[in-house]
Write a structure and sequence with these properties.
The structure holds two protein chains of two kinds. Chain A is of the alpha+beta class. Chain A contains five helices and five strands. Chain A has two domains: about 10-85, Ubiquitin-like (UB roll) (Roll), CATH 3.10.20; about 95-160, Orthogonal Bundle (DNA polymerase, domain 1), CATH 1.10.150.120. Chain A is elongated, with a radius of gyration of 17 Å. Classes of the chains: A alpha+beta, B alpha+beta.
Chain lengths: ~170, ~1000
């Protein structure tokens, strides 16, 4: 087994929002810090660094993950999706993002990146997710501005639109 | 409902696209200067101690540029200004004595944050412990004094009297009194503090970008501390800030520290606070002990109030304290028409984090006492609680209404709000629901609360703490300067700048609408900037985002600046249109007058850039308009200590139904109604957003959140797993109703709305719980254990042989156990006293030194939950009875915390010739380990001790001791 010193850096390659990227990371560098400060993808936010607040949630190989609880090295070769990859075009919002704007489901917007990643994953994996299920998933995030209700409404609205129905 | 001509609907926010796509620029997203260094802060692990530091090893670590101690900072700064006249030195970093857990004790500047934190672990802090003062009533005893220069922990004691309270109490039919405690908490923003600081040694100037929220009166505090004139402190805010709720006012001591660090390091320094730092030491609301008495007549009419408030501001009275206590001074009678009032305000210091701005700021503390008292009056007199509220409300025709202590309530119709609650919000249905629930034997209760929500603080209210003589000496302070700038560029488009420093409240959206409306332009045509640069922008001491001042003061000032610009443009357009300036209209992007050919707005707006010579004589150039506005109603405190502490006074009527689980004691909110009057509503979506946010924060304060300390001052809630913030599953949507009585004192008729539910909701929920349980709720948060105690009686005693767990909230460790070792007693005894064997068998041990025959010192690595660190452990042996028993006592200290404890070991011979060792121990733990590992300490201690004894058994008994999971489970069962 290779022994790594905390001061050695290794080249990490991964696919970020569909594009191959690389950067150097020491063994102890968190994935959140690697994304933000090494790759410049500052849309992912850091709120607690102990896995409770959910602000740093990203998708690693299709699964929601707290990027503050992963090391950059663990993401070697992975498909990592972040908030920067959600919009279909630079000047267009996704269905979920647009629903957030319509419902005033964000204020300061700091926790929003993580919540969007969780909900985007949920609505992809479980298109029929109901209010209770959405509340459960949003319950994995802390938001101090909105009181959550507009977030739940936005998610329900986006889910309906994605299923091909009208806005609720 | 009144008509709202000035209101636009709820357009989507211009802020949102950047926030939703990850492009927004928060402070930690900003580009760093190429030579930027990183700061990490070593913090006190003890609540009260004299300290000595050894920083040599940290300085020697490669990548470390500078290590600063309190003395290094003091050499370049002055103490922070204190709001009362006291010989108290308030430094942003400890000067050879720490007074709260988390207080900065050393700064490390290094090439990266990771290296800086490595260096923190190399700084050796020796604490010479002093007794800690934790509870405010204990502080009054002055057995231990935090600041010897002050001589007492009681740092302010003022009494106020308005009307004739003594006579009112004399004449009253009833005297009803309540004593309540409001806990420490804060609306923790999800983005912590962050800044980049730089120093120019030739200009002797500091340049700081920080997610500070204001008030910018603090700019003066920072400048003075850094010993530079105001123009040598350029303070800037980033375009986006991740929430604040008052809390980001508290970054200012760190602005001082980072500025000095940058100066010493000779390069820009960046610091981003982590969550443990934030929860431990950023800022907290004050905890307050209040006794409130009412003089009440036979009908439940209150004729006088008598307040006794004991405010705990933590270890230092840090700016702007004691403002939490005085923010509400004008409205201490809430929504009630009570003209006799007495108040005693005492402020004490304790060994806890200094307090500061938190959403609600003083309101939650006041209304928890006042609204609980109103319910108690109803219960005492056998009246309906809502009836008692209603009998005492200020009548609708009394506005503007002058309160006993000097506030001028601008407008309101409180009776109408109650009417909306009864009709639109269907109060009767809820009453029926309670009847049904109770008939089924469920614990169901209804609570009410009314609150007057002050907004737009008078910058002079804090001076009410001074005597009139002291005020005369320091000069009057008053007002609330708001500012807005409207500028036209050479293509005739409109830009707006305000010094409101928002953290997500949508100021840009609202201002674009307000200014666009005045100039006849769509909101999308107006570009608004809210990032602030004190080196270039218009600002004043009242600038910033606090006291819910945006809608009432800043948006209104934006309207005034736009109107002034429109009037200048009208004067330029008048001769072109052949009409008088008064006849010029601004509509749909055109400037028109009846019968004249319209001019495109952009062409007219560009005139002063391209052809200033064409501006008619007597008219002013139209380029840039900066308006400062301060309301005349905000006067300085008068000779009789009356003060109009705030400009606007909104109103809230809340009621709710809650059910308390008979088994667990958990409170469930069944229905929550909140009726608001915040004057004219500028943006329905944002107003409702403010209400929902404040309400969710209040649920946290009422049910879950508390910054907890143990009796020794150790901080116990350093993670979001210990400090519980409500999530989506704990926050049922509130039902919101509005009425609008526009403020006559603000340009748009709007009042603040951001803080009201933080004031009303905790009291409303507590009243409901009180109704459900028929019990007095005297403190928060209403945890299941606290509520259950009201109806479930005492906890049953522990079964025989089982030691009860340590009291919740404390981090005292206790344990006992026994282990059998297949070795003779003397062998075991000798092993326990041999440093070489101990080194092999103590888990994580790097070495044991025998200081004396009965004093051992070990260097040990221990892990507790998420924190693993190295400790120096000292163990002293006493009561030695060879080879039977010994008492072990000692302590451990390391970068992650410290502990002290003692234990007793007894060795007995077994019939088989082996040894049975019994032990018990108790210990107290402090520092980072207590803050983040508390939940895991007991388990971790048992694991470590178990490992030790297994190793001991293996060492002495030739491997007869079993190990592995089964053994460990057996061991746990026995211990």
């Amino acid at each position: 087994m290779t022994t790594l010193s905390k001061d050695d850096t290794t080249l990490i390659r991964l696919t970020l929002n569909g594009r191959e990227v690389q950067g150097r990371a020491s063994p102890r560098l968190l994935l959140s810090d690697f994304l933000r400060h090494e790759l410049g993808a500052t849309g992912t936010h850091v709120g607690c660094e102990h896995g409770v607040c959910g602000a740093c949630t990203v998708r690693v190989d299709g699964v929601m993950a707290r990027s503050c609880l992963m090391l950059a090295m663990q993401a070697e070769g992975a498909q990592v999706d972040t908030v920067e990859g959600l919009a279909p075009q630079p000047d267009r919002l996704s269905v979920l993002q647009a629903a957030f704007r319509r419902h005033h489901a964000l204020q300061c917007g700091f926790c929003t990146a993580g919540i969007l990643m969780s909900l985007d994953t949920l609505l992809r994996d479980e298109p029929d997710a109901d209010r209770t299920r959405i509340e459960e998933v949003v319950g994995g995030h802390l938001c101090r501005c909105t009181g959550y209700a507009p977030i739940i409404d936005a998610a329900l609205d986006a889910a309906a639109e994605l299923r091909g129905g009208d806005h609720v | 409902m009144t008509v709202r001509p000035d209101t636009f609907r709820s357009p989507e926010r211009v802020e949102d696209a950047a926030l939703l796509t990850g492009r927004a620029q928060f402070v930690d997203d900003l580009p760093e200067p190429g030579n930027c260094l990183h700061l990490a802060i070593l913090r006190a692990g003890e609540a009260h101690a004299k300290i000595t530091l050894d920083i040599a090893a940290a300085q020697a670590l490669p990548g470390v540029v500078a290590v600063l101690t309190g003395a290094d900072v003091a050499a370049l700064t002055k103490p922070l200004m204190v709001g009362v006249r006291l010989p108290m030195e308030c430094w942003p970093i400890a000067q050879d004595r720490v007074r709260y857990v988390g207080e900065p004790v050393a700064l490390v500047v290094a090439r990266s944050r990771y290296i800086a934190e490595d260096a923190l672990a190399l700084i050796d802090v020796v604490y010479e412990k002093l007794p800690a003062v934790v509870a405010p009533r204990d502080a009054l005893a002055d057995e231990t004094v935090l600041h010897e220069s002050v001589g007492s922990n009681l740092v302010s004691d003022r009494s106020y009297r308005y009307g004739d309270p003594e006579a009112a109490f004399e004449e009253a039919t009833h005297r009803v009194e309540i004593s309540v405690s409001y806990p420490r908490n804060a609306v923790t923003p999800i983005e912590c503090y962050g800044l980049i600081a730089a120093y120019d040694p030739f200009e002797e100037a500091y340049d700081v970008t920080a997610n500070f929220q204001g008030p910018f009166s603090i700019h003066s505090v920072i400048s003075r501390a850094l010993k530079v004139p105001g123009n040598r402190l350029r303070l800037r805010t980033p375009p986006s800030s991740g929430g604040s709720y008052g809390v980001k006012q508290g970054i200012f001591p760190y602005i001082v520290l980072a500025s000095v660090a940058a100066r010493v390091a000779g390069a820009p320094v960046k610091w981003v606070e982590d969550r443990l730092e934030h929860l431990t030491a950023s800022v907290s609301a004050t905890n307050r002990e209040t006794t409130l008495a009412a003089a009440v007549d036979a009908e439940g009419r209150v004729t006088a109030l008598d307040w006794d408030q004991l405010e705990d501001v933590g270890a230092y009275i840090r700016a702007p304290e004691p403002a939490t206590l005085y923010r509400m001074h004008g409205n201490m009678c809430g929504a009630y028409d009570i003209q006799n009032l007495s108040i005693r305000n005492r402020v004490v210091v304790t060994n806890k984090t200094p307090t500061g701005l938190v959403r609600g700021f003083g309101g939650p503390q006041v209304y928890f006492a006042l609204e609980r008292l109103m319910r108690k009056i109803a219960v005492t007199l056998g009246l309906d609680p809502l009836e008692v509220i209603e009998r005492n409300l200020i009548p609708a025709e009394a506005f503007p209404y002058r309160t006993a202590s000097g506030a001028l309530y601008d407008s309101g119709d409180y009776q109408k709000a109650l009417e909306i609650g009864r009709t639109d919000a269907r109060l009767a249905e809820l009453l029926e629901r309670r009847d049904v629930a109770r008939a089924e034997g469920r614990l169901y209760g209804i609570g009410y609360a009314v609150a007057v929500e002050p907004s737009v603080s008078n910058m002079g209210y804090v001076s009410t703490v001074l005597t009139k003589e002291e005020r005369a000496k320091s000069g009057p302070k008053n007002g609330a300067q708001a500012t807005a700038t409207v500028a036209l560029d050479p293509l005739g488009s409109v830009s707006v700048h305000v010094a409101s420093a928002p953290q997500g409240q949508g100021h840009r959206t609202v201002l674009a609408g307000v200014v666009g409306k005045v100039l006849g332009l769509p909101a999308e045509a107006v570009q608004v900037r809210t990032d602030l640069d004190t080196g270039k922008d218009a600002w004043s001491i009242a600038s910033g985002n606090y006291s819910s001042r945006f809608a009432a003061a800043v948006a209104g000032t934006g309207k005034l600046a736009a109107t002034r610009m429109r009037d200048r443009l009208a004067a330029i357009a008048a001769p072109m249109l052949g009409v008088s300036a008064e006849e010029v209209q601004f509509e749909g992007g055109m400037v028109t007058a009846e019968g004249a050919k319209p001019i495109p707005f952009a062409r007219l707006a560009a005139t002063s850039h391209w052809a200033p010579g064409t501006v008619p004589e007597g008219a002013e150039q139209a380029l840039r308009e900066t308006v400062y506005w301060t309301p005349p109603q905000l006067e300085a405190p008068d000779e009789a200590d009356r003060v109009n502490s705030s400009l606007c006074h909104g109103f809230i009527f809340d009621f709710c139904g809650v059910e308390i689980d008979r088994l667990t004691g958990a409170l469930r909110i069944d229905r929550y109604v909140t009726v608001h009057d915040c004057g004219r509503i500028l943006h329905q979506g944002m107003v409702d957003g403010q209400i929902r946010g404040g309400y969710a924060n209040a649920i946290g304060a009422a049910l879950y959140e508390e910054y907890a300390y143990d009796a020794g001052g150790a901080f116990l809630t350093g993670t979001f797993a210990d400090y519980l913030v409500p999530t989506a599953t704990e926050v049922p949507a509130p039902e919101i109703h509005h009425l609008e009585t526009p403020s006559p004192f603000t340009p748009l008729g709007a009042k603040g709305v951001g803080e009201g539910n933080c004031m009303s909701t905790p009291a409303c929920l507590a009243n409901a719980a009180s109704d459900a349980l028929g019990a007095e709720i005297l403190t928060l948060p209403m945890t299941p254990a606290r509520l259950r105690a009201h109806f479930a009686g005492e906890e049953p005693a522990a079964p025989e042989g089982v030691k009860p767990a340590a009291a919740p909230g404390g981090r005292g460790l206790t344990g006992s156990g026994e282990v059998e070792i297949a070795a003779p007693r003397q062998t075991v005894w000798d092993t326990l006293l041999d440093p070489e064997t101990l080194e092999r068998i103590v888990p994580g041990c790097h070495g044991v030194k025998k200081v004396t025959d009965t004093h051992f010192r070990a260097d040990v690595t221990l892990g507790v939950g998420p924190v693993k660190g190295r400790y120096t452990v000292d163990v002293k042996l006493t009561d030695l009875v060879e080879p039977q028993s010994a008492t072990l006592s000692g302590g451990a200290r390391g970068a992650l915390g410290s502990g002290e404890g003692s234990g007793r070991v007894v060795l007995e011979e077994t019939p088989e010739g082996g040894t049975r060792m019994r032990y018990d121990y108790e210990a107290q733990v402090g520092g980072k380990v207590a803050a983040v590992g508390g939940r895991m300490l007991d388990g971790a201690a048992k694991v470590v001790i178990g490992q030790f004894f297994r190793a001991l058994a293996a060492q002495t008994g030739g491997g007869t001791a079993k190990s592995g999971l089964l053994d460990r489970l057996m061991f746990w069962r026995r211990s």
